[in-house]
Amino acid sequence: MATTHNLGFPRIGEQRSLKIALEQYWNGSMTEHKLLQTGKNLRKNHWKIQRDAGINYLPVGDFSWYDHVLDTSVMLGVVPERFAWDGGEVDLNTYFRMARGRAPSGESVAACEMTKWFDTNYHYIVPEFAKNQTFSLSSNKLFDEVAEAQALQLNAKAVVLGPLSYLWLGKVKGEPFDKLELLERIIPIYQTIFSRLKAQGISWVQVDEPILGLDLDSSWQQAFVQCYQQLATDRPKLLLTTYFHELRGNLAWACQLEIDGLHIDGIRAAKEVEQVATALPEDCVLSLGCVDGRNIWRTDLQQTLETLQPLKDKLGERLWLAPSCSLLHVPMDIEWETALDPEIKSWLAFAKQKLGELSVLQRALNQGETSVSNHLQQSTDACTRRKKSSKVHRLSVQKRLSRMSKAVQKRQSPYDKRVKLQHEWLKLPCFPTTSIGSFPQTTEIRQQRRAFKKGALDAETYRVYMQKEIEKVIRFQENIGLDVLVHGEPERNDMVEYFGEQLDGFAFTQHGWVQSYGSRCVKPPIIYGDVARPAAMTVEWSTYAQSLTDKPVKGMLTGPVTILNWSFVRDDQPRSDTCLQIALALQDEVLDLEKAGVRIIQVDEAALREGLPLRKSDWDDYLAWAVKAFRVTVSAVKDNTQIHTHMCYSNFNDIITSIAAMDADVITIETSRSDMELLDVFKSFAYPNEIGPGVYDIHSPNIPTKEQIVLLIRKAAERIPATRLWVNPDCGLKTRGWSEVEQALTVMVEAAVLLRQEFA
Ligand code: GLN
Ligand code: ZN
Predict the structure, then answer these.
(1) pLDDT tens profile 201-240
(2) Model confidence over 424-466: pLDDT tens digits?
(3) How far is CA 16 from the centre of its chain?
(4) Active-site annotation holds for 699
């Protein structure tokens, strides 16, 4: 008999109830008791959904108030000194202070850093390790939740983040040392955790070790072997999980670890399934992630069964079925979508449906296909309909892609020639000042947008309102003396959604929320079909803004790679093809803007870096098509049209040649928080074009001083020729208030004026 289990379930709940409860607790309008009750109810409901879907082992410990890596830190007693924790059980407010710097009680302190969980859009709280780091079991959350599940008569499988992945994800603070030195100190805590779980009657523990999908050097490989040897006694059975990538060089030794089961990502590591099945010892379970936990498409069950059947014949009871990874990364229930095109909806499966799919696969294996023939037929029909649908396939788009000539990937002239023409035409001073695009999104702006979307506001009234807003932004920028203006983006709810809603091939959900960090969720668009642009998307707003002023106004677009990386992407063609389709659609927009007299066009690639594959050997391929997509988007313009791009980071030492290959005339980047140190790469790499390193941090409410900005730009000028420097904030201003923006940008312009005299 094959067994089913789940690796993790979305935490946020129906109607994002966890988000709402957390935010109420944080602002003082919900008691701790009520919050705890909300969590308990959510866990109970989520377990019930999983059990009713037919899942045999339910994950316990995957629920989190904020983040499961932070849960692990707290469980192991890894609480940095500044939180003034005095040992013992870490309380909820200390936990929240670590996550977000403040909580209803306790002093506000600098929060722990947050960063991306592998190649997902989920952010975890980075553990901080000191050289004299000690560890102690400091939370009972896991054991309490196990007891909770057992009281409900559920078949619980405890979930923990494994010691090696935990260490890997953390950061050394203070005196440098090798993190692996801490392993010996952590293992005893894991021993205690495992033996307590065993005493509670737990038979299986899922130990997440996703770093098995990364390149590991021999010291980490050996650490794995030793660690699991040391953890071999007085414990439940261990199921080690790996996901998001192939095991590659780690495959052989990972299969020999002292464990009782290994989970692999059958979607992303499909190639390795057979090899792992052969390499695992006779008594070791293979858990196959055969339903995609990272995307929202329905599984082709019949096709999946064809790979499962021989595995079942070979492994028998040792075959377990699971989603490829935790379902944290997909929305909860497709049935909540009442406004979605029914045809598109029939192609989709969210967390709950994915568990249903697993259960059908299980029955097909255990009881024969005829026991589920209806379900199999439905799945086949849905997949066939999707394959053939005219909503998915547009001949015109495919033809355009296949005919795309080399010429549109390259500007007419090299930068040296373009820059002269641009400077002649634009007549900008040195150290030109600009912003990244958005201006404060006030409550009123949001209300107007919402009213228009709901139909409560007619198109004309909406347009007049937005025009007034644009005019306000233009006048303000003129008044303070900025050189390159923007229209302020008041019409945009989100930099991807705004474009997706106007492009063919995109669908949007009402409730398809996915946790991004803490209480924050995103609702990624679904790219289901060939992408085309039926009409101009931004030209009206940009040209209106330009009509109000003699200064140049930048047109503002979101780039193809960012749109791709922040969406659920179709899985029936390479991602690179989908990206190029988006690029071609955006190319039309760029040309329309140019035709309408917009002389500067910015194409934001905020998410280019985060799309980097997990293994370095896969980077070149990704970067090649990502750069190509950007170039396709912008290269058809005339030489004297200035192309800008913006990136929300500047740690691109490792991808600098690709950034240069994008050949944007100007790139604006985030640097202020690093004191321009991140620009060091420009000392050794002669970046050829113009750069605007962000001169103040827009994530903070603090107003920079003129002196601070001047100092930063002087530092930048040590690394990049002053003639090629722009002066701008770190990122868009939409989350800031007007008074902050007024003060900060005024100071910024004053700093630029001062520098012009200094460098003249
Ligand atoms: N143009 C966008 C803005 O200013 C860029 C946002 C971003 O980089 N994330 O808001
Ligand atoms: Zn940014």
Answers:
(1) 999 999 999 999 999 999 999 999 999 999 999 999 999 9
(2) 999 999 999 999 999 999 999 999 999 999 999 999 999 999 9
(3) 18
(4) yes
70-122 pLDDT per residue, tens = 999 999 999 999 999 999 999 999 999 999 999 999 999 989 999 999 999 99
User: Which residue of 121, 473, 487, 495 sits with most ligand 1 atoms within 8 Å of its CB, as the best mutation to test the pocket?
Assistant: 495
Task: Tell which atom from ligand 1 comes closest to the C-alpha of 436.
Answer: 4
Delimit the CATH 3.20.20.210 region(s) of the chain.
Answer: 3-388, 415-759
593 Cα: distance to centroid of ligand 2 (angstroms): 22
Residue 7 to residue 206: CA distance in whole angstroms? 8
Q: Are strands 114-116 and 123-125 parallel, antiparallel or unpaired?
A: antiparallel
End-to-end CA distance of the chain: 80
- For ligand 1, the distance from its centroid to the CA atom of residue 495, given in whole angstroms, is 7
Q: Determine the Cα–Cα distance for residues 491 and 125; give it in Å rounded to an integer.
A: 33
Q: Which of 375, 423, 646, 699 is catalytic?
A: 699
pTM above 0.85, yes or no: yes
CATH class of the structural domain 3-388: alpha beta
Q: Does 717 score more than 90 pLDDT?
A: yes
Q: Is the CB of 609 under 6 A from ligand 1?
A: no
pLDDT digits (tens, 9 = 90+) for 350-370: 999 999 999 999 999 999 999
Go through 62-84 and write b for each residue having 16 or more CB atoms within 10 A of its CB, e for each that does not: bbbbbbbbbbbbbbbbbbbeebe
Whether residue 526 has its Cβ less than 6 Å from ligand 1: no
Q: Where do the H-state alpha helices sit in 370-496?
A: 373-388, 395-403, 415-426, 443-454, 459-480
Query: How many angstroms is it from 730 CA to the middle of ligand 1?
Result: 10
Describe the crossing of helices 373-388 and 301-315 by its angle, rounded to 10 degrees. Answer: 130
Question: Atom 10 of ligand 1 has which residue's CA nearest to it?
Answer: 732
Q: In the structure, what pLDDT confidence band is assigned to residue 490 with cuts at 50, 70 and 90?
A: very high
pLDDT tens-digit map of 397-406: 999 999 988 7
Rounded to the nearest angstrom, the distance between the alpha carbon of 665 and the centre of ligand 2 is 17
Q: Which CATH number fits the domain 415-759, given the four candidates 3.40.50.1000, 3.40.630.30, 3.30.1360.70, 3.20.20.210?
A: 3.20.20.210
List pLDDT tens digits, range 464-473.
Answer: 999 999 999 9
CA neighbor of 332 nearest in space, from 568, 38, 9: 9
Query: How many C-beta atoms lie closer than 10 Å to residue 274's C-beta?
Result: 13
Give the number of the atom of ligand 1 that is nearest the alpha carbon of residue 438: 4
For atom 3 of ligand 1, the residue with the nearest CA is: 732
What pLDDT is stored for residue 673 in this prediction? Answer: 74
Nearest CA, atom 5, ligand 1: 732
| CA atoms within 13 Å, Cβ hemisphere of 615 | 19
Distances (CA, A) of 95 to 74, 75, 266, 635: 7, 11, 35, 49
What's the pLDDT score for residue 358? 98
